[in-house]
Amino acid sequence: MRDINGRNISNIYDYIVIGSGSAGSVIAARLSEDQGRSVLMLEAGPSDKSIFIQMPAALGFPLMNDKFNWYIHSEPEKELDGRTIYEARGRVLGGSSSINGMNWVRGNPWDYDNWGAMGLKGWSYDECLPYFRKAETFDQGGNDYRGDSGPMHIQTCEANNPLYKAFIEAGVQAGYPYMQDHNAYRQEGVHITQRNVHKGIRWSTSQAYIHPNKHRENLHVCDKAQVTRIEFVGKRAVAVSFLRDGKSEVITVNKEVILCAGAIHSPHLLMLSGIGNADHLAEFGIKCIADLPGVGEGMKDHIAAPVQYRATQNVSIAKQLTPIGKFKLGAMWTLFKKGLGATNFFEVGAFIRTNDEVKVPNVQFEFIPMLGEFQHGSVKLENGFQYFFSLMRPTSTGRVWLGSADPLAAPKFNFNFLSTQEDRDDAVAAVKAIRHVVSQAAWDPYRGEEVTPGPSVQTDEEILKALRGLAGTNYHPSCTCRMGTDNMSVVDARARVHGIENLRVVDASIMPEIVSGNLNAPVIMMAEKIADDIRGVAPLTKAKAKYYSPA
């Protein structure tokens, strides 16, 4: 058996990293910086060397099938008219960082101080900020908030289309301040988006951390290797079993297994391996290694829904995406890595508070200057524009559970979206806030008919009814193996699984509470931080950067 460089895979490693996504690639690269330690990273999916992965504008294509993604669906959602919700999860080198929307958002600084207030030592904003800085090279240069020498290249979008400009101007007219950098002192307001794109290429964690280092003798990366079980002797993780090329393989680990399979697949693999609710495991004849009832519980995601408009002028970028336009786009990107192929389309955005009772933005706006369907696994383009809102701190919680003891069977999961009155109220308020912004003068030259929810949908009850048919995931599942000390937590503040030796979980599943924004950057930060802990390196010096809080 050979790795992606054709080198022989050993039968024993110091560290085995399961999953190559936003956390796994970071962990594997950082651990392999120590030449005396051997690292194996296992990825279930194929190589990321595909135009549909590397071209930013092709972001919709990996969502349409299971070539690069697990392509899984929730169980029927009670509050969403019984619909099943499609969830894209990366199954490719780079994981979900190879198929996401590339929006570089750290979350609100308050999120991390809140983690610290929950009793999680080491996770305050002052302690997390140095690792955000370590991870990135920001195109506007380094400062107290931003990094200038990290592996992740972060680019400020150009936002030249007239619809992008109308978004910013209308937001200011509606009373939201313009933020030069929403990843620094103040998140709240409208902003030009930042994205992990470099020289026209999607800058995933595999691109940033693995490809430059994959020739290290002590780092082996094995693709198309689906892990089926973590093996234990007593309470100690000792090996990892996986399937590759139809064959079952077992690799022994000397020091630690680091599980980085994501907020749906990490709890699934823990349960298959005997870690979870003992009663649930017994239903499937799985021997319980550790009775941890919190495994798979408490899932949170940013529920999202579109508010769409037709445009009265033909300025939408949809006009550039005709068959001929796509050919030109592809040629320009292939030859020069420039043009529309180098954009992720989400070039402006906002974080707002829908009421004065909350002190941290509770709604995010993402925006694309065309009518496009990305949310439900298909891509359809028309002239127009659309806002996507997401609820930043939802109170509805879902879960992940076993449907079978077969490791190749998909996990069962349910988001339980809109199951609380608070979330229902916030979702209705978000639609109203978008309509208020679109009513501003900056939109007068372009504003056509509202497509969804539609002009006939006006009362709170009508809006909520429409949202039950429109809303879905923003692809941000988290909190299913959360950090903590109570009996429903799964890992401690160092990401070590309670009661188990030599096993950590590092991905969005360990977030004790979902953060205010896209999850890619926060997970990279968490992986950078925990990698230092695994290596025995002293934590980076605390930052002393203030952040905005309304009076």
UniProtKB/TrEMBL annotation:
GO terms for molecular function: choline dehydrogenase activity. Its EC number is 1.1.99.1. Coiled coil: none annotated. Keywords: FAD, Flavoprotein, Oxidoreductase. Residues 90-113, 262-276 form the Glucose-methanol-choline oxidoreductase N-terminal domain. The keyword Oxidoreductase applies. It comes from the Bacteria. Pfam families: GMC_oxred_C, GMC_oxred_N. Its cofactor is FAD. Belongs to the GMC oxidoreductase family. This is Choline dehydrogenase.
